[in-house]
Amino acid sequence: MYSMWAIFAGIVGLIVTGAAVYTLWHVYSSINQTKEGQPQDSHNSSGQRPGVGIYFLRWTVLDAAMLALFAIGMLFLFVDLLSVMRNPEQYPYHHYAYILVGFIFSFLGMLFMIVRLSLTLQSTRMPGSGKEHHNQPEQADSTE
């Protein structure tokens, strides 16, 4: 039984590592594509190469892998908590602290992913029109 879980954990680790390598490769290839069409010293005002940040304006494969890791990790922590609550005499008291720390770290990791999502969506949002026409309902279907 433990061998099966070890194999499963190894496969999940390889998938996440592959997602990280794929993300790095994609960023590296986008750097090379922008470098081919521009002079060597073309940097923007912040000192970064243009075009690399465009890739991170959407969710990447690595982000999806992190969401899957979060879900699997929280599931295992919850199952561990249930087993400790069912047989508390078999576990030392500090095992509750380990589980609590695991929940906190997983929650903070997911919080950072949600912050990244909100910043990504906020940076790609299209600005609305400057004029408001609430007091002119008769012109709602016609263009100006």
Describe the structure.
The protein has 144 residues and is mainly alpha-helical. It has four helices and no strands. Helix 1 (2-36) runs antiparallel to helix 3 (61-86) and helix 3 (61-86) runs antiparallel to helix 4 (94-124). The longest helix has 35 residues, at 2-36. The chain is flat and about 75 Å long. The model is unreliable at 40-44 (pLDDT under 50).
Summary tags:
single chain; mainly alpha; 0% strand; 144 residues; flat
Poorly predicted parts: 40-44
Taken from the alpha-carbon principal axes, the silhouette is flat
Q: What string gives the helices and strands in order? A: HHHH
Helix content estimate: 55-70%
Count of helical stretches: 4
DSSP strand content: under 5%
The Rg value, from CA coordinates, equals: 24 Å
Q: How many beta-strand segments?
A: 0
Major β-sheet annotation: none
Structural class: mainly alpha
Overall mean pLDDT: 76
User: End-to-end span in angstroms?
Assistant: 70 Å
